[in-house]
Here is the input.
Amino acid sequence: MNSETSKLDTPVTAFRGVGEARAAALLKMGILTAGDLLRCYPRAYQNRGDTVTLAEIREKLRNGESDGPFSVLLTIAAEPSVSMIRRGMTLLKVRAFDETDAVEITYFNQTYLRDKLTTGASFRFFGKFTLEKSKLKINSPICEPYAEGVPLPDIVPVYPLSAGLTQKMMASLVRDALRMCGNEIAEFLPSDALAELHLPTLGCTLTNIHKPESMDALEGAKRRLVFDELYLMFLSIALSGAKLRRDNTIPMKLSHEDAAAFKAVLPFELTNAQRRSVNEIAADMGGESLMNRILTGDVGSGKTIVAAAAIYIAVKNGYRAALMVPTEILANQHYEDLSGLFGKLGITCALLTGSTKKKERERILAGLNNSVRNGSGLNDDGPDSHTIDVVIGTHALISEGTVIDRLGLAVIDEQHRFGVTQRAALFEKAADVHCLVMSATPIPRTLTLATYGSIDVSRIDELPAGRQKIDTFIVDERYRERLNAFIRKQKQEGHQVYVVCPAVDEAEDDPYAKSYDGNDTDEMADVPLVENWRDTSVPLKAATVFAEVLAEALPDLKVGYVHGKQKPAQREAVMAEFASGELDVLVSTTVIEVGVNVPNATLMIVENAERFGLSQLHQLRGRVGRGKAKSYFILVSDSKSPVAKDRLNAIKSTSDGFKIAEYDLEMRGPGDFIGENGIIRQHGQMNFTLAATCRDTDMIERASYYAKRTAADDPELTEEINRRAAKQLGRFVKEFGNTQN
Ligand code: ADP
Ligand code: MG
Here is the structure.
C-alpha cells in the first residue's frame, strides 16, 4: 500500500525491556509493533484522582453504600510488621492515617514493601475497604509514593494482559510507543467530520486513551474511537458494494396480460407493501443494470410471493430462475408452496438438495440444460415437456457440476445464514444475473448501508390482514410450576411447544461473563472502556440439560432437543420429528430462529430471555402463531437489571420488527447487528468492538454519511488521507474483498 517505513512499524523487540518471552506474550495479544501497542486500548480506567478521607469511607461502609475502590492519601504510622502465616505465604501489616482516621493495610507475599512503607512517608492508596469490628481495613491496595508538588496520574489505564505481562510493563511500553510515534500519528478522518462532530484528532485521541488528562478528555477520545470504527465499517461496506455494481443487464419486461394471469392465480390480494416491492423489482429487472436488491420484511410478511413474482418475470422472458435457501426444510417448504402456484401457470419447478437421489438429480440437471420456453411458451426447437424453469434448493445448487443454462435470476433466502465460502460461491454464480436477496431480519435504516452496502432495499413493513396477535408475557422462576402446567395444557389441546435456551450445554463458557481477563486489579477497574449491556448475573440455562429437566417434570410428554453442535443430519431429523408432531416439546438454542414452520406450535418459552438481542427475540416469536390457534410467547427472566426489564418490555409492547430493531439500536448500539447474529459481520470477519456499543444513532448516521461520501469520491482510496484510512481498514477487516467477488 505505502512503502514508506514508519516508526509505527517498529517491532516491539526494539523496545527497552522486551526480550523473547515478553515479545511472545505480546504476540499472544496480537501486538507486534509500536502501532499495535498504541492500538491496544485499556479495557478500563481507575479514577484515582478523586481522593476521599478515611472518615468519609467509614461513613459509606457503615451505610452499606459502597466499599470502593477508593483513593486515599495516607501517612505511614509505624514500621510494617511481617509474619509468615504458612509456608510460602507472608503477611505484611502496616498502619496508616490521615487527618480523620486510621486504617490497617495488609499485603500478602509482598515483603519488599517493608522497605518502602517507612514511618512518616506518604502514599496514595487505591483499593477496596472493609470495616471489621469498627476497624477500617484495606487489603492489597495499589500504593504510589506521594509528595507535594509531584503530580500522580489521576486516571490510570487498566490494560488487557496475557500471562507474563503486568499493568506496569504495558503502561511503560505504551508510554514509550507514544513518545516514539507521537508525531507520526496521521489523521485519516475527513476534517469536516472532525469539526462537525467535535472529535479530537487521532494523535490527541491516542494520547488521551492511554494517558487521559481528564475524564472529559477521555470521553472525547472514546467517542472518537467509536466514530473511527463506525466510519471504517461503513467505508469497507460501501466499497464492497461499489464493486458489486454491475453495468450489464438482462432487460426483462412483463406484459399486462401476463401480470393479470399471475394475479389471477394468487389466493389473496397483495398488501400495499408487497405491491410496492413487486413494482420495485420489476423496474430493476427491466432497467439499465442488473438487479441487486434485498427484500426485507418480518417473518410472515409475505416475501415468498414477491420472490415468486420476480421468478415469474424471468420465466416469462425466456430465462430460468433459481431460488436458494440455507436448509433442506426451507427448500421443501418453498418447493411445495411454489410448485403449486407455478403449476397453475404452466411453469415447471424442481427441488434440488443434498438428499436428492442421483437419478433425480441427473433428470433435473438435464431439465436445466435443454432449451427453455421462450416468451410465447414454446421451446426454440419445439415443445419439450422435460424442461425445468425454476429450480429450488440448498447450496447443492451451487455445488460443482450444477450448471443452469439461461439463468436470468437468482433469489437467495436468508443469505446471512449461509457460510462465508458458500456466499462467495453464490455471488459468483449470480454475478451476471438479476439478484434478489430476502431477509427476515429487520435492520434499522441507519444500518442498511452497513448491512447491505449499496444494494437496493425493499421493505415489506406491513403484515397481511387478519394475522393473529401473539400474546407475550414476561415471568420469572416463581412461575415454573405454572409454566409446566401451561405446556401440558397446550399438549392436551393437541398443540406443540418450543423452549429456547441460550447455551448448548453446561460446560459451555459464558462468552460474556468472561469478557475480562480476570487479572488481580480487575474488580477495581471502575470505568470500563466498553460497556456490556448484557446482564450476566443470572446463570445460563443449557438446552441439553434443560431438556432433561423438562422431560422429568413432564414425563407424559415427548421432549427432544436440537442445537448447533449437533451434526446437521441429526438436527434435521429431530426437527422433522417435531414438524410431524411426534415430539411435543422441542428444546433448542437459537438454531430454530429461522425457517422452521410448524403451524401446530402454539407456545414458545424463552429461558434467560435477558441474554438475547431484541431482534433475535422478535425472530423467535415469529416461530409461533403460524396456524389458526391462539399462540403465546413467554419470556422467562430472573434479571433484576432495569435495562433488561426495559428491553423485554419493548418486545411485549410491539410486534413491529423494524421498530424493535430501531429500539435495539438506540438502546445499546449496533452490537446485535454486528455481533453474534453476524448480520453485518457476515460481510467479512470484522473485529469491531467499540462501535458495537455506540448508542448515539446520530453518530452512526453521520459516520455512514461520511463513509459513503468517501467511497463515492475516491473509490480506490488513492488520496493521502484515504490511503491512511485504507491502512486502518486492514486492522479491522480480515477477509475484506474476498467474500463477495
Ligand atoms: P415470509 O415473509 O416469512 O417469507 P411467507 O411468504 O412465507 O412469509 O408468507 C407467510 C404466509 O402468508 C404464507 O402462508 C402466505 O401464503 C401468506 N400470505 C402472503 N401474502 C399474503 C397476503 N397478501 N394476504 C394473505 N396472506 C398472505
Ligand atoms: Mg420466508
About this structure: The pocket of magnesium ion (ligand 2) is lined by residues 303-304, 413 (CB under 6 Å). Residues 582 and 675 are 35 Å apart (CA to CA). Confidence is low (pLDDT under 50) at residues 375-383, 509-523, 675-686, 734-741.
